Amino acid sequence: MERKILLNNIAVPGIRTFEVFRSTGGYLSVEKALKEMTPDEVVEEVKMSGLRGRGGAGFPAGMKWSFIDKKSGNPRYLICNADESEPGTFKDRYLMEKIPHLLIEGMICSCYALGANTGYIYVRGEYKYIIGILNEALRETYAAGFLGTNILGTGYNLDIIVHSGAGAYICGEETALIESLEGKRGNPRIKPPFPAVVGLYGCPTVVNNVETLANIGYIVNNGGNEYAQYGVGKSTGTKLISACGNINHPGVYEIEFGLTVREFLFDEKYCGGIKDGRKLKAVIAGGSSVPILPGELILKTAAGEERLMTYESLAEGGFVSGTMLGSGGFIVFDEDACIVRNTWNLARFYHHESCGQCSPCREGTGWMESVLHRIENGQGRSKDIDLLVSIASKIEGNTICPLGDAAAWPIASAIRHFRHEFEEHIQNPEQCSLHRMEEFENLKI
Amino acid sequence: MLKVTIDNHTIEVEEGTTILQAARMIGGAVVPPAMCYYSKLKDSGGKCRTCLVKVAQGSARDPRPMPKLVASCRTPVADGMVVQNMTSPEVIDTRKAIVEFLLINHPLDCPVCDQAGECDLQNLSYANGREESRFEEAKRSFKVVDIGDKIQLHMNRCILCYRCVYAANQLTDNRSHGILYRGDVSEISTYIQTDITNDFSGNMIDVCPVGALTDKTFRFKNRVWFLNPMNASRSCSKCSGKVTAWLRGEEIYRVTGRKDQFGEVEEFICNECRFDKKEKSDWTIESPRNIKRASVISQNHYLQAKKPSVILPLENRTVSLEEFEKENTNEKQS
Predict the structure, then answer these.
(1) What is the pLDDT of residue A336?
(2) Which of B137, B159, B182 is closest, CB to CB, to A370?
(3) Rounded to whole angstroms, what are the CA distances from A268 to A48, A94, A330, A376?
(4) How far apart are CA A121 and CA A108, in angstroms?
(5) Nearest-CA neighbor of A99 among A188, A8, A201?
(6) Are B16 and B76 in contact (CB under 8 A)?
(7) Cβ count within 10 A of residue A323
(8) How far is CA B226 from the centre of its chain?
(9) What are phi and psi of B253, to 5 degrees?
(10) Can you name the residues that pair with A207 across neighbouring β-strands?
(11) Residue B299 has what pLDDT?
């Protein structure tokens, strides 16, 4: 029996409302934290839990909290990053849509731990309907006295404000998000200083992902040690994986860290195997930014060990034969998928979403896209492949924010693992099973 | 005081100094090029990535190297830091790539550009650029627009350094221009092509590292290398009145701020001094101004540089390797 933390009560009717959520044990953590614990004790529990950021980078959440500058005396802020824009990732949407109170509960405990009196939920612009759900949930929480002034008579004040983004992928980067929240153009800031010192309105700020914050309630209730019982090694707890692509059961699954990729992909409880009995070709394991891996490498590491759904196991082999867990967007390709077309599609996305602030990303993403477009349209030359590798390697690591890396990795990895496919596209463009020239000619960019 | 070593030169600097500032104190070849950083404009820098350097040792206390190359203009030094600029092949390699990125959408219309001869991008690409372009697609293009009656904007040439945005933001009381759109289609613009009328708007021309913002009173009048830069001054109620007047014979062709060896103006000047005072009688000419860095103007810099290594024969004939080498050696000897 698999163990769950977040989605245990997902099937309870009316769980979206405060009343039902409360009856399933909701908001107990708020009472416990505010009445029985000091803020530092909450931070300690989160540190002990080993909870890692669920937004993609996997940075330990407790550590991030401990960096917050308490000496300056400026107000502190917690921002919930709900700008889930990574292609292939839709776990936060599911969480906010189904159990919004789980997030709010976690945010209250987190704000208390950080000493923040204002929390923001920065919601992706495309998630318009979720803003309504969150605002309704917040209204209920205010009415029940868990938000506002003097919460539960403890003297602690907290406001949570929902803010809508305007649809830019870059605003999921934490400093661009802060700029956007301040009402400015969503350009990433140059770090240092980090948001923990100079963040929103120049004040110390922590930015956490929705799923990270949703875990805090459980940690406060049961203690960090109990939470750390879930998972393996440094990947503690559970993870929401949004699975999509050519599989039988696409959807959001909560898995305990340590499940094998094979079981996740082929078990009926999860993805249920590849659609229409076709063969597995490749997987993007953690949202479009992480390196793509061919089927044999996603199931087993280069050393021949079974690959597990953990931060460490997926990263085994570095970028030569490994990938990243990222945000948990699990995109599966079957044998008929065209890697070149997919890579071009991703390149087009990053080209469109680059903020244009720093030169490698602004110029490089567009350049890579046009070269890939050329290959995809049958006008590629053999030197184009090395050109792509060269451009990607010069963007990677040289940009202000990780968008440059995110644009370079999928292309570099696709060429690393599927070079023959690019070569075939250049030599015999008509041979690709998917390549229908008329369709591409009609496709507007 | 913090001790920092850049390319084997050690210097003591105050806390809060950036690597680039420390390198400028040392001077010479260790100074990384900067296309977007401007010491007189707050928040500038970090964008063009040409000043990336390698930090081989983070500090005396934590000697680990930094994992990525860092933007020297925005990274403060730490005590015991060891920085590699020209001594790191990785840095030089990356800089070449950055120059390539900056040039792929640049029109390379230097022959008709007023900035030619004093253009930071021209100097940068001469030092770090490739001989041929690998970019085959169509370059992005914009229409030339006037922003105000004295300034013309060639967006094609812009490298989006944001300097003019900061200048307009910080020097003038009424900021009316910024960046529209994003990615490689983003452009400097005034919203709905409003004119920029502020008294200090002309400084945007001086801070522009390329020929994107040009002085309409000087456009196509002369080449900068034919002009003699002279320190000149007048009493002005708006600014210091200390300028560089660019003369040919007895005629003043243009007026700019006094630029130092790093291409930054010493003091910002007002539009009246810049655009309206073009008579020699308006100014007290003080002394010749020695332009140190900008290459073509006074340094004969290009004469010492290496010639491009491959010169293709004009007529369509096949040249054997021996013949080719022979011709090339003859050329070098002569």
Answers:
(1) 85
(2) B137
(3) 34, 21, 16, 35
(4) 12
(5) A8
(6) yes
(7) 24
(8) 20
(9) -90, -35
(10) A79
(11) 47
Q: Encoding tokens for residue B82?
A: 């060891």
Query: Which pLDDT belongs to residue A204?
Result: 96
Q: Are B70 and B83 in contact (CB under 8 A)?
A: no
Average pLDDT over residues A350-379: 94
> Which chain B residues have a beta carbon less than 8 Å from that of A366?
105, 183-184
By the CB < 8 Å criterion, does B105 face chain A?
Answer: yes
Q: Which residues of B touch A374 (CB under 8 A)?
A: 137
* N-terminal to C-terminal alpha carbon distance within chain A: 47
What does the pLDDT look like over B280-310, one tens digit per residue?
Answer: 999 999 988 877 655 555 444 444 444 445 5
Which of A366, A387, A398 shows the shortest C-beta gap to B184? A366
- Verify whether the Cβ–Cβ distance A363 to B102 is below 8 Å: yes
Q: And the tokens for B206?
A: 């001086």
Helix (H, G, I), strand (E, B) or coil at B285: strand
Q: How far is A249 from chain B (nearest CA, A)?
A: 36
Query: Are B183 and A354 within 8 A, CB to CB?
Result: yes
pLDDT of residue B332: 47
Where would I find the H helices in A73-125? 91-98, 100-114
Give how far Cα A391 sits from Cα of A369, B96, B127, B264, Å: 11, 12, 20, 32
Contact B260, B82 (CB under 8 A): no
Closest chain A residue by Cα to residue B183: A356
**Low-confidence winner among A50-59, B7-16, B53-62, B311-320 (lowest mean pLDDT):** B311-320
The overall pTM is greater than 0.95: no
Share of chain B above pLDDT 90, in %: 63
